[in-house]
Amino acid sequence: MDVILIPGFWLDASSWNEVTPALDEAGHRIHAVTLPGLEAPDAPRAGIGLVDHVSAVTRLVDRLGERVVLVGHSGGGTVAQAVADARPDRIARVVYVDAAPMGDGDTINDELPVVGDEIPLPEWSVFGEGMLAGLDDDARRRFRERAIPEPAAVASDPLHLTDERRLDVPTTIITCEYPSSQIRAWVADGAPFVRELAAMRDVDYVDLPTGHWPQFSRPVELGRILVQTLER
What we know:
InterPro entries: AB_hydrolase_1, AB_hydrolase_fold, Sec-Metab_Biosynth_Hydrolase. This is Alpha/beta fold hydrolase. By secondary structure, this protein is α/β, with parallel strands linked by helices. Helix content is 36%, strand content 16%. It has ten helices and eight strands. β3 (68-73), α3 (75-86) and β4 (91-97) form a beta-alpha-beta unit. The radius of gyration is 16 Å and the shape is globular.
C-alpha cells in the first residue's frame, strides 16, 4: 500500500524517520512529505496557505495512480482531510495522529503567535504539559533545533469542504493527549468541534497514551499501530 505521511506544524518529512521502519518491514511504500514553506529554515513562506499544502499532497496522490492511505499528524490531519475531500475515490483510509477532522470553515489554529509571514515554534509554555508528555528536556531541545517556522496563513486559512463522499472514507483516530473515551463522549454529547467526526460513517479509535508528538515520544509503538491499521 502507498502510505503518505503528512507532518504537523514545524516539521518536515524527517519527523517520521523513527516511525517508518515498521511500515517498511511490512512492505508498504512510504511517501513522507515536506510541505511547501518547510523545506528549510530560510525557505520563503510569504503567500503560502492551506490550499498550497493540500494541493501538494493531492498532486502526489494523482501521481501515484493507486488508492492510498493518508496519515496526518496534528495540522497535517487537516491537510489529509482536505485531500480526502478532493479525491474521495482515491483514498483507502485517513489516519489522524493526535488530530481529528474539522468542520467546513474552521481554521487549524488562528491563535498561534505570528511573526511576519511565519509562525516560529512558540515557547513550550504555550502548549502545556499534557501536550508535551513523553518529551524530556533533551527531546524538547532536539525538537526545537529541528523545528522550521510554519507559513502563517496555513494556521488561519479556513478549511473548505465540498464533497460529502469524504464522509464514507474509512477513518482511524489515534488518540494521544486525550483518551478515545473522551472523544467518543464529545461526539455523543454533540460538541460542535467534533461535528465532522460525528458525521463520518466508518471510524475507529486507537489509544496511544502520550503527548502530542508520538513520532518523538513513542515512535516504535506508533509505527506498529499504523501497520495494524493498514492490515484492517
